[in-house]
Amino acid sequence: MQKIDLRTFITVSSMLLSVVIFFTGCEATSSEIESKDFTLFSQKADDFYVLTSSLDDKKQPRTITYLFSGSIQNNTPNIIAHGVMTMSTYLKLENGTILTEKEIDRNLFGGILSIASFRNLKPRESYNIQKLESISIPVEYAAYPVKDVVIKYSLETEDQINQISEKKVIKSMSVIGKWRNAVDKVSSGKIDADDYSFPGSVIR
Hints:
Layout: H1 6-26, E1 38-52, E2 63-74, E3 80-93, E4 98-99, H2 101-104, E5 115-121, E6 126-133, E7 137-138, E8 146-159, E9 164-174, H3 176-188, E10 193-194, H4 200-203
Parallel strand pairs: 1-10
Antiparallel strand pairs: 1-2, 2-6, 2-7, 3-4, 3-5, 3-8, 8-9
């Protein structure tokens, strides 16, 4: 029986462990560990909307966009000097492939409307988030074999008093039911708004 060199065994084991960690980290699921330091509350909007172009006389569905409007509450005993919240969208296909925003929307400024920031948020204080808009997902994706859709809210915070900077997942959830409702609208040719009136027509 051939002896296995200890160095080779350690190298191979490390490589296998790295591969497992890599693919585990790439998985976008609704079961990620969520921080209890902040609470997100939806108010006027928390759903997918089917949009058309304001230049389209036939008003055909063009894109699908997720819109959130609500507030975030600071549950910590600390003053958050600066916070940046980001809403991310992931499409998980039946074959296990996960499509990120960068793969769906190759626009250089895609996702810029899904970011909100605040300053000096005191303990138990809330900040009103007027809107967070996802990337514009072309309606062609309505025909994709989508198994799950995940919306993830991440928050980067800076606590100047305690000299702490952190990035946390505030909320990660499956919105497949809302996605399917949007797909049904696309299939029937229905729209919620056009790109000129949105999101004002929803959150005004």
